[in-house]
Design brief:
This protein is mainly alpha-helical. Helix 3 runs parallel beside helix 8. The protein is globular.
Length: about 280
């Protein structure tokens, strides 16, 4: 059907008002020359390009997650739950992109991977300092994990700062306390480098939020944002584990990790334990 009122393409050669000589171009603003020339293949294997790009893109998405998470934590300190929820919701959308990346990587067969695996040397996703900052900031504290970054002072300092700071959940409990909930003192002031321990009193506080949601609407909504965040993070972990299992089975990882065995153990970790436990008692 022909219809002159509908245009399916634009002939930019006829646009006389477009000025191509500008103070900054699209490519300059995004620094595309640097970005698109950062894929330095170490072998001639076809799938190495996909492998590098997926991991580089994932690191960019994680950078944005950290940007949003740090801002959300600052808003939470100031009792500004509305902006904090918007930022956490954005992280959830970013997580969808991270999960999808495993679907792309899973198109690689064991033979494809082995064609360039030796070129990776001892490099491993286990060494991602941005991932470690995310884990620490969400509450999965493990001081031993910072050793992997000891040879890179700037990275080490960034990971160490996240380890020593209150997590998103620690700040959430402080918010509950400011709102009048009975949160144990040892959960409000503690050694932030240590793993969080679940508390019956904290679970009781969340039960009150859930059963009296009309009185604590923003806290009720915030709780669900946290559950959604952890749900997606666990989905990402599961997709990671299954993709690795699909490609290398139970072989050890390139960095010397236990591979799938290690990734399966990570599925048992919880960032916000009482928010999951309370569902049983509601």
């Amino acid at each position: 059907m022909a219809d002159d009122s509908i245009k399916t393409s634009v002939d930019i050669s006829s646009e006389k008002d477009i000025h191509w000589k500008q103070d900054i171009s699209y490519g300059d603003y995004l620094e595309l020359d640097t970005l698109l020339n950062a894929q330095n293949l170490r072998t001639g294997a076809h799938d190495e390009m996909m492998f590098i790009i997926i991991h580089q893109a994932s690191e960019l998405w994680m950078k944005l997650c950290i940007h949003e998470l740090c801002s959300a934590m600052e808003k939470l300190k100031a009792d500004e739950t509305g902006p904090a929820m918007k930022m956490i919701s954005r992280i959830a959308r970013i997580q969808e992109q991270l999960i999808q990346s495993w679907n792309i990587l899973s198109t690689m067969t064991p033979k494809d991977y082995m064609s360039f695996r030796d070129g990776l040397g001892q490099s491993s996703g286990f060494q991602s300092y941005q991932y470690r900052i995310l884990e620490f900031s969400l509450g999965n504290k493990n001081a031993a994990m910072i050793k992997a970054h000891a040879d890179h002072p700037a990275r080490y300092d960034a990971v160490k700062a996240a380890l020593e700071a209150p997590s998103l959940y620690d700040l959430t409990l402080q918010l509950l306390s400011r709102r009048g909930f009975d949160i144990p003192v040892d959960h409000l002031k503690r050694d932030w480098t240590q793993p969080y321990q679940a508390s019956d009193a904290v679970e009781a506080a969340w039960k009150k939020v859930y059963t009296q949601g009309e009185n604590y609407w923003d806290l009720y909504e915030w709780a669900e944002k946290l559950v959604d965040l952890e749900h997606r993070f666990q989905t990402w972990r599961f997709s990671h584990m299954k993709t690795v299992e699909r490609i290398i089975g139970y072989r050890r990882g390139t960095g010397g990790t236990a591979g799938v065995h290690y990734l399966k153990k990570a599925l048992d970790l919880r960032f916000f334990p009482e928010l999951w436990n309370v569902r049983t008692s509601l």
